[in-house]
Amino acid sequence: MKKRSKRFEELKKLSTKEKKLELKEIFDLVKKTSTAKFDESIDLSLRINLKQSKGGDFNLRTVIKLPNGSGKKTKVAVLCETDKLSEAKKSGADIVGSDDLLEKIASGKFGFDKLICTPGMMSKIGKHGKVLGPKGLMPNPKLGTVSNDIKKAVEDIKTGLVEVKNDKDGNLASTIGRKSFSNEKLLNNYNHFIDSVKKEKPSTIKGELIKNIFITSTMGISYKVGKRS
After folding, report:
1. pTM as predicted
2. Kindly report the CA angle at 172 between 218 and 199, in degrees rounded to 5?
3. Which residue ranges form the domains of the chain, and what is each CATH number?
4. Start-to-end CA span in the chain (Å)
5. pLDDT digits 0-9 by tens, 19-74
6. Are 57 and 166 in contact (CB under 8 A)?
7. Would the N or C end of the chain have less CB density within 10 A of its end CB?
8. pLDDT, tens digit, 9 for 90 and up, residues 83-126
9. Which of 217, 219, 214 is nearest to 23 (CA)?
10. Could you count the other beta carbons within 10 Å of the beta carbon of residue 168?
11. Phi and psi at residue 47, in whole multiples of 5°?
12. Secondary structure, 3-state, the chain
């Protein structure tokens, strides 16, 4: 029989076995079980209703800007025309380039977490979609990564713009902050995130869009959120 670590056994004592809890209690427990030596992320896991009364299953894909940021450090690259390189360098982007950046992408050298592209360069980046797409790096106007306003696009991503996308089973996950965040900031981010997801509900779905909500940390225990939270 596999021996469990001392940390695992201690965390197990704080498990609530699917019992629904109030948010304040959850944040306290999540932080208490965040015993790793790094600043663990506080994450949401949602189960949403995909069944529409007419047509195929609903798919949700959008971006949400957390009011207090995500606490995640994101390495941003900007692909733009040569006459916009100076503007891009001043935007706070980590990597800036034009045709030279395209060559690096073509060779499989990424080194960034998000790629912002100006509309004028989309025709050139298109042929790399098969490489960038599976990695979630293909620029998309709906996700704020195709824009002529380079400074705003970079700032949005750097300050807490998170991408939201469900899988085929209706599961959706995102971070809402870090263990070091105050409960007030986490609650503010949580409420904004949930309200934003609810606004995406199409009229063709009957009943509630969100079925279940769980909160956890990177290395901690998952807790189910009660309806009154």
Report:
1. 0.82
2. 125
3. 18-71+162-225 (3.30.190.20), 76-158 (3.40.50.790)
4. 40
5. 567 788 899 999 998 888 899 999 999 999 999 887 788 999 999 999 999 998 99
6. no
7. N
8. 999 999 999 999 999 999 999 999 888 889 999 999 999 999 98
9. 214
10. 8
11. -115, 120
12. CCCCCHHHHHHHCCCCCCCEECHHHHHHHHHHCCCCCCCCEEEEEEEECCCCCCCCCCCCEEEEECCCCCCCCCCEEEECCHHHHHHHHHCCCCEEECHHHHHHHHCCCCCCCEEEECHHHHHHHHHHHHHHHHHCCCCCHHHCCECCCHHHHHHHHHCCEEEEECCCCCEEEEEEEECCCCHHHHHHHHHHHHHHHHCCCCCCCCCCCEEEEEEEECCCCCEEECCCC
Q: How many CA atoms lie within 13 A of 50 on its CB side?
A: 16
Give CA angle at 100 (94, 105), nearest 5°: 75
> Is residue 12 pLDDT above 80, yes or no?
no
Extract the tokens encoding 200: 């995406």
∠ CA 132-136-138, rounded to 5°: 50
Question: What's phi and psi for 151, nearest 5 deg?
Answer: -60, -45
At which residue do the structure tokens 């957390």 appear?
66
Q: How many CB atoms lie within 10 A of CB 58?
A: 18
| Euclidean distance between CA atoms 30 and 223, whole angstroms | 8
78: left (phi over 0), alpha (psi -120 to 50) or beta: beta
